[in-house]
Amino acid sequence: MFLNGGGMRGGPLHEQLQGAPLCCVARSAPKYHYFSVGDRFPAMHEGGSATVVGEVYDLPLTVLRDHLVPAEPPELELGVIELEDGAACLATILRSSYVDSPELTDISAMGDWRAYLASR
């Protein structure tokens, strides 16, 4: 599971991973838009040219079902993204119905949630 926001180490949702091991720090393929949603959490959406920094975890599906997904905001849904090395990976992505939301700030140029938060 590719995490790029609150589920990463030190984030407010990290404990929802129930101790799942970190596999690696990774980047997405350069094919996404990356947004701040009301400065509350980040969201990826296909169709751009940004790479996104994240962490890949070996997350059991029961943990995904019982802990992480219920903690995610309604603007996000499960999807499959492409990593920089071409691998497919589960991730939470922005629901298409929210793409025109006035709450979105494009942070694609930064591509890193922690760096964005530090810059505010």
UniProtKB/TrEMBL annotation:
Cited Gene3D superfamilies: Gamma-glutamyl cyclotransferase-like (3.10.490.10)
Superkingdom, natural source: Bacteria
Allophanate hydrolase C-terminal domain span: 1-118
InterPro entries: AH_C, GGCT-like_sf
Pfam family, one: AH_C
Entry protein name: Allophanate hydrolase C-terminal domain-containing protein
